[in-house]
Amino acid sequence: MIGQVLGHCRVVSKIGEGGMGAVYRAHDEVLHRDVALKVVSKSTGLQSSASQDLLREARASSGLAHPNICTIYEVGETNGELYIVMELVEGKSLRAMIGDIGLPAESALRYGVQIASALVRAHDRGIVHRDLKSANIVVSAEGLVKVLDFGLAKRIENEVLEGSTRSLQSLQDKSTISGTLPYMAPEVLLGESADFRSDLWALGVVLYEAASGHLPFKGNTAFEVSSAILRELPKPLGPPVPPGLWAIIQRCLAKELTQRYQRAGEVQAALEAVQSNVIFTADTATDRGVPRTTAFHGVRHLQVKRGDCLLLVGTLKGAFLLRSNAQRKRWEVGGPYFHGQVVYAFVYDGRAGQHRMWVSTQSHWGTFLRSSDDFGKTWTNPPEAPIRFPADTGLSLKNIWQISLGRPEEPDILYCGVEPAALFESRDSGESWSLVRGLFDHPHRPRWVPGNGGLALHTIVLDPTECRRMYVAISAGGVYRTDDGGATWAAQNHGIRVMFMPCKYPEFGQCVHKIAMHPSRPERLFLQNHFGLYCSVDHGENWTDVANGVPSDFGFPMVIHPHDPDCVYIVPVESDEFRCTCDGRLRVYRTRNAGASWEPLSRGLPQKGAYETVLRDAMTADPLDPAGIYLGTRSGQIFGSTDDGKNWQKILDGLPPVVCIRTAVIQDASSSSPQTPREDSRSTSSRTKSSVTSKPARRKG
Amino acid sequence: MALTFHIPGPLREFTGGRSKVEIEDSPSTVAEALSALYAIYPGVRDRIATEQGHIREHINIFVGDEDVRYTGGLVSRVPAGVEISIVPAVSGG
Questions:
Q1: Superfamily (CATH H level) for A5-87
Q2: Cα(A455)–Cα(A579) distance, rounded to whole angstroms?
Q3: Which of A250, A291, A443, A637 has the fewest beta carbons closer than 10 A?
Q4: What's the rounded mean pLDDT across residues B24-48?
């Protein structure tokens, strides 16, 4: 072969031998450049039709101009031999660089980003690699990655493999293991044609290999390897592999196509996110013994940084995450997470230095409590439902209405309020949960009746100064308080009117919609009832009507200003039957004197034909200064104000019906910026006059 | 004779990606067949049934073409070699 001329290339020397045939260094006599020349061996058994396919595909691939793709210059056939002229890439194969112990995570990420970038270009042009593997990737001395053989090798090897897999006998023969079998996606093994996502599977295998030094799916025979690919989960990669990288690998290696990344660009973005200064905690769900899922088709993820303000939005069709910096002028939208599932509760837990989000999801398949430590990129999906009624109760969990964090000094404690009405408690950071029997066994419980939304314990309020005191609100059961850490509970409904019962002031049975307390005034609670606005100044013992000047005392949400204990926000709606904002105007009402008077806030909110409903958990505040007040509507709009409600801006619309919004400010202990959360929640509002000209949120993708 | 479970997409995360699962034993009832499935893939149990062991309201189990809700529920007989489908209810809105 040496000295021969193929096309206008003279063969200079042999570089190596691959599955397809020999590779030579050659010199292009016309363009005067050194090239690589691949001559496809006749022994591959390539049929003439396949040969034409290969030629066609190689020609298509030759149009791929990308710094991380080895360029194909020319393809041709001479004397029955197929040859491919390509860019001469000098460097080491990634396979050789990986060795037995893998690469440092930083290198694995750097190369991974480049490989993903190459796939982005190829996939954009409709070209599937079909045989991505570490041996097909060359890294130059400068660290530049080149992916070889786009759209070439697999067609040939499939022909060979098909011939060798017709009998089980040959599959069990070690000699028939294809060099690329360990990179094959399950669907390809099952006979489906490879598509872009099969390349992303292979990328996951390469990343796993790069990070650990070994393949994720192994076996002594082709049968064993195939079996592992189809059925087994790869052995988890712990430190020093960053949890973020491991999460990406897992999602690439999702056996179900729809659960895998759908586009190479998503993998590239995720790898870049891990590379950049994104917060990832070391404690992954896998470490916690809980499997993760990566089952989100077409989900947009956010890069969250310290100092960011997040809105956690639960809707009837999934969860969304909105991110802004402390200025809160522009918002990016992440999600949707949990497509089509009802998300009634979604909270952020930043206690003890963690960055964990908790969410409740409800679907035909049940209600589950799930968490994410990487801002939604991956979520736990526990095999066994963590919150479950004990057998002796005879009850089954319908929904989780509220997820509530324990006090800051009790970072392992969490509570959930559920339907049917009950309280669950975890004392080990959500690992295990138990029914709070003191409340469940209360003699009133059998006489609680469901409200319109079901019989739910939807609100949990902790007294920050008395560690054994807490309040819960139940529709329709009323308010209950414990002073002994949950062992015993007493109804606290004196003075709260029940419109729909013959006895207007019963001991219990009130349909309470929301209660709220400011941490600086733990003796005082505000309450939005099913008709009636109330305040108690004696820990809920007695309630006084404070519906002074509101257009309707019916409503759902109630939020206290984070820096002003006398400032409370509500959204009145018109009557029990209609349940829409009065007069078709979306108005928030605010008191700044603990209910002595209320004033409408409407600037920036729709005031014509706006028959809106804001549900009980769809209003919230952030702890920044000035505070942000947010509300979401059943019509899928989110509004926000950063001047105490004087001016509102639409942050986003077009969402499914919003059922809950919570905020998170990602703490930066070193920052002394005025936008950091206020330390002293006892101080009164700064009453800033600043007006924010917020822009609607950007939807990426 | 083995029977086969057809696993819907949302549950395949818990069956190692498999859309079909064969049970080698010869269970005589739907309950026994499900128990055999749960033994292999525990994660599907709480998706199919409540913590009290009842099939979830909007999940249908078909033995062949028959919805077991109308053939005796969990104690419905399971013929040898039959195919059992786990099907979420159609819903709107």
A1: Phosphorylase Kinase; domain 1 (3.30.200.20)
A2: 19
A3: A443
A4: 93
Q: Is B56 at the interface with chain A, CB within 8 A?
A: yes
Report the alpha-carbon distance of residue A142 to residue A556 in Å, rounded: 62
What's CA B37's distance to the chain center, in Å?
A: 8
- DSSP SS3 for A413: coil
A581's CB contacts (< 8 A; 6+ apart) are A571, A572, A573, A574, A587, A610, A611, A612, A613, A614
Residue A204 has pLDDT above 90, yes or no: yes
d(CA A518, CA A526): 9
Mutate: best of A256, A259, A260, A339, partner B, most B CBs <10 A: A256
Q: What is the pTM of this model?
A: 0.64
How many domains does one find in chain B? 1
Q: Is the pLDDT of residue A127 over 80?
A: yes
| pLDDT surpasses 50 at A592 | yes
Q: How far apart are CA A650 and CA A385, in angstroms?
A: 37
Of A624, A553, A565, nearest to A589 by C-alpha is A553
Eight-state DSSP code of residue A455: S
Model confidence band, residue A286 (pLDDT cutoffs 50, 70, 90):
very low
Q: How far apart are CA A614 and CA A623, in angstroms?
A: 21
**Least confident among A41-55, A120-134, A223-237, A545-559:** A41-55
CA dihedral A588, A593, A597, A598 (to 10 degrees): 0
Neighbour count for residue A691 (Cβ, 10 Å): 14
Residue B32 lies in a domain: yes
- Beta carbons of A83 and A7 less than 8 angstroms apart: yes
Task: For A386, name the nearest residue in chain B, comparing CA atoms only.
Answer: B46
Domain residue spans of chain A:
5-87, 92-276
Report the candidate in A559, A579, A561, A463 with the shortest Cα–Cα distance to residue A511: A579
Please check the confidence at residue B39 and state whether its pLDDT lies above 60: yes
Please check whether residue B25 lies inside any domain of the structure: yes
Q: Please state the φ and ψ torsions of residue A57, each to the nearest 5 degrees.
A: -70, -40
Candidate from B9, B56, B91 with C-beta closest to A366 = B56
Domain coverage including residue B71: 3-88
Reference A665, options A632, A637, A696, A626; nearest CA is A626
For B46, which of A256, A364, A385 is closest by C-beta distance?
A: A385
Whether A252 contacts A200, CB under 8 Å: yes
For A92-276, CATH gives 1.10.510.10
Q: Which two tokens stand for residue A619?
A: 């209003």
pLDDT at A123: 87
Tell me, what amino acid is at A358?
W
For residue A11, the SS3 value is strand
Indicate which CATH number applies to the domain containing B18: 3.10.20.30
Q: Measure the CA–CA gap between B59 and A366, rounded to whole angstroms.
A: 10
How far apart (Å, rounded) are the C-alpha atoms in residues B21 and B40? 9
Residue B93 within any structural domain of the chain: no
Residue A400 has pLDDT above 90, yes or no: yes
Confirm whether B50 is domain-assigned: yes
Q: Is A131 a catalytic residue?
A: yes
**A151-165 mean pLDDT:** 42
Say yes or no for a CB contact (<8 Å) between A364 and B59: yes
